[in-house]
Structures are given as C-alpha cells and as structure tokens.
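ENTRY TYPE: paired fold submission
RECORD: A
CONTENT: sequence, then structure tokens
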Amino acid sequence: MCFVPITVALELEWVLRGVYELGPEQIAESFNALLGVRNLHFEQEAAVLEAVGLLADGFDFADVLHHAGAGSCDSLRTFDRKLLALAARVGLTPPVVLVDR
C-alpha cells in the first residue's frame, strides 16, 4: 500500500495545472485514475473526491479541498470573492462566508 498525503495531492494538482497546463477535465481524469489504483491510499480521500468533482464547476482545487475538510464547521471563511460566488451558486455546505478586510 502506498500512502498519498493531502499535501502531495495539492502539489500534484498544481503541477498538472501549472506545469503541464492541463484543464479541469484532464486533471479530474488524472485524479480519478489514481484514486482507482487499488494500492494507493489518499489521505482524506473523500475530500479529494469532492474537490475533483467540483473542478468542472470552476472551483480552485485547493479551495474546495479546504472546504471539504471543513465539513464539521459552521462555515468556511475566505477572502476570495470568486470562491464565495461559486459556493453560493452550487450551495456548498457548510456555507462560505466572506471575511471583511
């Protein structure tokens, strides 16, 4: 069994997007293929799956990965207006709340 820490998942998405210039669909396909490998175990696998599933809706992978980890909280606070708008559009729970500067 090979363990994939959550930080490696974040870095992998960054490399696929930034270095290899893959789009959201290709990134999702890559993650889904890796998640299907029997001998790989992703830390917070449910959160990774949720983040991968929201890429097609225009979300940033790191943002929705953080949101998925906040499931037991009342809200997720952010400075990111784009995340706020996307979260409201799809009805993410817990709600995303903008932090006033």
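RECORD: B
CONTENT: sequence, then structure tokens
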Amino acid sequence: METSSSQKKSDYDLIEPVGKRVVVRKDLNKRETRSGIALPDSHEIPVITGRVIAISKQIENDVDLTIRQYDKVLFDPREAIPVDLEHDNRMFVVHVDRILAIFRKAGAASAENEIGQEE
C-alpha cells in the first residue's frame, strides 16, 4: 500500500491552477538580513515571498490582471493551499486576491512610463 501511494505522488509533473489562482513556489526563509539583523521565526511573519510558476487560463486571458508567470510576489500563506508535488513541499495554490504585492524592477517601470510619455 505504501509503495502505490508514493508512486501516485510522482505520477504528476505539472499543476495547472483553475479559476483566478496561481501556483507559487515559496522562497527559502532568510534568518538574517545583509546588515546582520536577526529575523524572527517564520510563524511570526504572516506573509512570505515566492515565484509564480503557473497561472490559470482565466488570469492569463484577463488584461486587467498584471500578474504573470515568474513574477516575484508577496502572499499570505494562511490562505494558500500547500501542494505536495515536490519533496520539499514549497508550492502553494494561491487565489489572486491573496497576492498582496508583485515585485518589479524600477528600470522596467520607468521605461514603460517613458514610452507612454512619448506617445
């Protein structure tokens, strides 16, 4: 019985979210900042960061939603559903409303503004 359940877990390679959901791979927890300040345990920090590894077709086709695959995001893990697809269990299915922020590079945003101003 145990061998069949472990085989079932490895049968799937991909996960495609449904509705307005994304799949996020959680970043590794950092315990100290660059300047040496010690951070509290992860249970004290209710939000975490990660990379979007898959988006649903509904989000992909919605021009009003700016979240895309490979974006770095900040999300609330209490509302996320863990996915047991990898051995380290760092993946979560997250509703787009539970994404709190998307990290963008300043150069990319200013380049878009310059293009908009030229028109």
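NOTES ON RECORD B: The longest strand covers residues 48-55. Helices lie at 2-10, 57-60, 106-118.
STATUS: closed
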